[in-house]
């Protein structure tokens, strides 16, 4: 389970997160929606131990990232698909990750297959990958240790329709096997199709949470999203 409790983050005069609380239960996909600058990446970076909260907490299985005993087995993260060194091959990236986790080389082949990268693609330098291929590699890297929680920031960016279909199936299978999946996206329809629950934020504040049907209120998620985010903009204007 992933939990954000009264999480706030301030960057000098910007309140990137303001008292945000929500839970990502084990065995579910939670879609994290918000317009540009809403605070999604900030919340995910804090959860991954890359940034400190001003107040509140973000925990995986009850512990902050720094307190996890075996982080690679507990939470997998994909925060920036383009963060890998362009000169390394996909296989090298995964092999380094597998070595850090003490996993056998065979796990690299399993993961390449899981994310749909061929042996030839795995041997190519990441600098020559399309964004969709980088997303697949990043998802594979996050899954190396078969973690119990998964945090993906905009993983659908750059994926083609087949790729999006594949990712939807993968996330569903992971959740069905007990994983807590948190997924941020701008693609409302995509999220609607895969998420069991949706959390909406705007201007650093929690705007709504519930199932897609509850939030869509019969008129569609997009309408609710547009109204709530516009109201958040007005209240802080
Ligand atoms: N390192 C930083 N220094 C100063 N301000 C920052 C920093 N990181 C984020 N911010 C600000 O915090 C706010 C939230 O940004 P964040 O990147 O978390 O939003 P987001 O919801 O992920 O946006 P997007 O959908 O565009 O990726 C924005 O106003 C952003 O400018």
TrEMBL record:
GO MF term set: ATP binding; ATP hydrolysis activity
UniProt keywords, alphabetically: ATP-binding, Nucleotide-binding, Transport
UniProt superkingdom: Bacteria
InterPro entries: AAA+_ATPase, ABC_transporter-like_ATP-bd, P-loop_NTPase
Keyword Nucleotide-binding appears in the UniProt entry: yes
ABC transporter domain location: 2-228
Entry keyword annotation includes ATP-binding: yes
SMART domains in the cross-refs: AAA
Protein family (similarity comment): Belongs to the ABC transporter superfamily.
Protein name: ATP-binding cassette domain-containing protein
Species of provenance: Nonomuraea deserti
Phylogenetic placement of the source organism: Bacteria, Bacillati, Actinomycetota, Actinomycetes, Streptosporangiales
């Amino acid at each position: 389970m992933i939990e954000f409790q009264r999480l706030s983050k301030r960057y000098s005069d910007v309140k990137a997160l303001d008292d945000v609380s929500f839970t990502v239960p084990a065995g579910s996909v939670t879609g994290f929606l918000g317009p540009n600058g809403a605070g999604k990446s900030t919340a995910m970076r804090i959860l991954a131990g890359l940034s400190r909260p001003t107040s509140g907490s973000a925990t995986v299985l009850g512990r902050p990232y720094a307190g996890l005993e075996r982080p690679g087995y507990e939470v997998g993260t994909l925060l920036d698909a383009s963060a890998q060194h362009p000169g390394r091959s996909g296989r090298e990236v995964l092999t380094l990750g597998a070595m850090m986790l003490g996993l056998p080389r065979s796990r690299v082949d399993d993961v390449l297959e899981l994310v749909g990268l061929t042996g030839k693609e795995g041997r190519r330098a990441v600098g020559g990958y399309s964004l969709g291929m980088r997303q697949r590699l990043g998802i594979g890297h996050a899954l190396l240790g078969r973690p119990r929680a998964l945090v993906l920031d905009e993983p659908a960016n750059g994926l083609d329709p087949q790729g999006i279909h594949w990712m939807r199936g993968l996330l569903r299978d992971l959740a069905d096997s007990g994983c807590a999946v948190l997924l941020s996206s701008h693609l409302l329809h995509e999220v609607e199709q895969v998420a069991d629950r949706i959390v909406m934020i705007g201007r650093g504040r929690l705007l709504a949470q519930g199932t897609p049907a509850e939030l869509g209120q019969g008129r569609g998620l997009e309408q609710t999203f547009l109204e709530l985010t516009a109201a958040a903009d007005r209240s802080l204007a």
